[in-house]
Each structure stands twice: as structure tokens, then as C-alpha cells.
Amino acid sequence: MSRRTDTFMFMRIPQSLRFYILIVIVLTAGVTNLSSAKRLNLYLLDFDNIKNDETVSWLGRGLVDMVSAGFQNVDGVRIHEQVALERILQDRSLLLRQASGTRSLLVMGSFSRNLDQLTVNIQLINIANWVELGSFSTRGSLNHISKLGEDIVLQMKMALEGEIPKLDARGVLRTPDAKTPIPEFRQQAKELNFSLETAVEDLEKAMDLYIGSRGVADPTIAEGSTFSREFSFTSGGTVDDVPTADALMLEQIINTISSNPYIVEISRPSLYVQSEGDGTVQLALSVKYALRENVIKDMLSSLPYSALRQDGSLISLQFSRREMAIPQALINRINRGDFRIVPVIRMIDKAGRVRTVILETTEPTWYQRKSSIVRFLTEHQFSPLIAFTASGNSLQVTMETVEINAEYMISLSRQEAVDYTKVLIEFVPESELETVLGKLL
């Protein structure tokens, strides 16, 4: 049939029907083109409130709504939520039934608040093979949350530029000619460098608070991870810890926390007469153990932890190994238990000789050890107030902000009690106890 005949037949159709037929033809052509064009499916989950901050918990859903609204009118992009994702996870064959060239990406977001500033992190993951295609981070004010939502959508569109189908001159969707790699923004690295500098500044500031703060008679003297107190009933000066410049590096900051985390107060020893007849006395030694709470909190609050959990006096922080680039050597030391430290207490006489050793431990083998050189005692009044654990993707620091009040009783002769002039407490890794005590026992 010729075009001329077609035109003649169309002209014979009543005028009232011509308009509707034209609409059907246009819509049919549009559907045909759309079905063959590339599609982009975005699956959105509620954003993760990584600090469990109840004041901004509404943003978990609110940020999803902002992203959905930003892509609502973008041709070729379809927004799906958790129900649709669960359907795919239950039946992966649904991906095979999608139109050729269709991409399905999972958008995973998280956010954290610091005062009125909000930091949002987003990952783009290919659902077909669970490969991360890119990530970015953006920051904004809670007072301008709409502007923050616009920034998130803008960065997502930039990251997905090569994935979103384009409209040609006729207004028809077409597959992009070339795929632009999804950029990966490295703002986190800059923030980490800044955080490390801040951590050291805060550490130095916190440590300065201790200088001159213990001016009472018979103070506990701290020298690194060793604490001592003269108890010859005379007053003495105070020596305080001084932070080192090596704390500029993350590994050394963690080493600082783990190697010297405690504040120790040694009370003035007391003597009690046990029996008038046998000439023995009881020496009572009271010791208070606590975490360097201010120093540790200042230090850790400056580092980009990925999760924080607090239950009463127990505080647990989690750090991402990928974002912080924690050295594998440090992870190996944590797994070996090098940072499980316990106090070793030494009682020293006027001649500088160690006469009594008290070990705080739960290890049964030490309770069976004997010594012919010194008086060796084992106790279990101390429990570690800080613990480090490492998993595949993170490092956890668990702290307990309580005080441990221990009282050690030593039975000895009156003459020996008079000879004692000093008590020294040193924290030693459990893995090094044999080396340290082997020289004393």
C-alpha cells in the first residue's frame, strides 16, 4: 500500500478519533524506545546512624527520602527500596530478567553528627557481583539540611554520570556512548591527617593538666608505665609523664594508649601488729587503679571511629581498618595479646633490693611458682580496664571508666618492715612476665 493510499485512508477517519490515534502511536513508539534503552536501578537502604545518636535518628529515613526526591524526575533511573532488594537477594534470577544493559546499584549510606555538623558517607555497590564501584563523603550543617540533601544528590549524579541514560535530540533515552568511571573521593584521608594532628594537640593539652596537680606529700611518682612511692614518711617531689613527639603517628598513638593507660595512686602503707608474741606485723598497702580517662577520651574523640557504644561505665569504640590504614604489624601484636598488661608490685628495702614481689594475674601457673630469693605473692584484685581486639575489618577498643581499689596484706617481721622504704608498681604485658619475673624470682 502506497503512502498516498495511507494518507487517504487516514483522512477518512473521523476528526474526533484522529487525535487519540496519534497519541497511541506516539506512546507506542516511546515505549518501544524505552524498552530498548539502558536503565539504572538504584536500591536505597535507610542510612546508618553509626554513633546511634538519638537526636538525629530521623535522618536515617530522611536522607533516603531526599535522595529519592532528587532522582525522581531523572529519566532512565528507577528508585527501589529494601523490599525490592530483599526480593533480589532471595531470587538472583530476577537480575537476568532485566532489560539488556540495565545496571542495578546498591546505595549504602551512613552519617554521624559532631555538634551541628553532619558527615555523610555513601558507597555505590554493583549488586550483580557486590563490587564497590565508588564512594564519597560530604559534610553540611544540620541547620541547612535541605542544602546537604542537594549536595548529596549532586555528588551522586556526578558519580553516576556514565551510568545514567541520556536523552537524544528527539527526547528519546539512549545508552551512553562511553562509561565514565565512578570517582572515589578521598576526603576521609584528609580528615584523618587533620584528626591525627588534633589528637596529638589534645593529648599534649590533656597531659599538661597533670603537671603540678599532685602537690601533696608522698605522691605517687609516674615514670612511663612504672609507678612508685617513697614511704619513708618524708615528702617528696612529683615527676609527671611527658608526651613524646612520636605520638604524631596513629600506630604510636595506639601504642601510647595501650602501653601506659593507667593512673595509679599508692596510699601510704600502714603497719598492724599481728601478734605481740611472734614479732610479726601486717603491712597493708592500698592501691587505686583507674584509666587515664581524660587523656584517652580526648585522644579517641579526635580519631575517626566508625561506631561508639556506651553501657554504663563501659565504652566501646570501633575503628575501620580500611579508612585508618592500621598497620598489619599492630594488628598482629593485638592478636598475640601484647597489650594485655598486669601490675607487678615490688617492695624494696633501704639497700635497694627487691624483697617482696606481688603479681596480679589470673594465670594458674603463676600461683604455683615459688622463689627462694624473694617473697612471691599472687593476687587477683586487678582487672584490665582497657582491651584491644582486632577483626577482619575493624579494631575495637573497650574501656571501663571505674576505679579498682586493691588492698594488699603482707605478713613479715618487724625488722623487715622497718627496712622497707619503697614500693614500685610496673605494668608488664602478660607475654613478657616470664622475662621480667625470671630475673627477680
Strand content: 25-35%
Instruction: Work out the number of β strands.
Output: 22
State the oligomer: single chain
For the largest beta-sheet, the strand count, sense and barrel status come to: 6 strands, mixed
Q: Tell me the domain tally.
A: 2
- Our count of helices gives 13
pLDDT < 50 stretches: 1-13, 16-37, 176-200, 209-217, 233-248
Report how far apart the termini are. 112 Å
Mean pLDDT: 73
Please estimate the helix content. 25-40%
For the CA atoms, what is the radius of gyration?
Answer: 34 Å
Shape: elongated
Q: What is the SS-derived class?
A: alpha+beta
Model description:
- This protein has helices at 3-12, 15-36, 59-71, 82-90, 145-159, 187-208, 250-259, 293-301, 321-324, 328-336, 364-367, 414-419, 433-438; strands at 40-44, 48-49, 77-80, 103-114, 117-126, 131-141, 166-167, 173-174, 221-223, 226-230, 262-266, 270-273, 280-291, 307-311, 314-320, 341-349, 354-360, 375-379, 386-390, 394-400, 403-413, 420-429.
- With 441 residues, it is an alpha+beta fold.
- The protein has two domains: 37-185, Rossmann fold, CATH 3.40.50; 190-438, no CATH class.
- The strands form five sheets. Strands 1, 2, 3, 4, 5 and 6 form a six-stranded mixed β-sheet that branches. It has a six-stranded mixed β-sheet with strand order 9-10-22-16-17-18.
- Helix 3 packs across helix 5 and helix 6 runs antiparallel to helix 8 (293-301).
- The protein is elongated.
- 22% of the residues are buried.
- The model is unreliable at 1-13, 16-37, 176-200, 209-217 and 233-248 (pLDDT under 50).
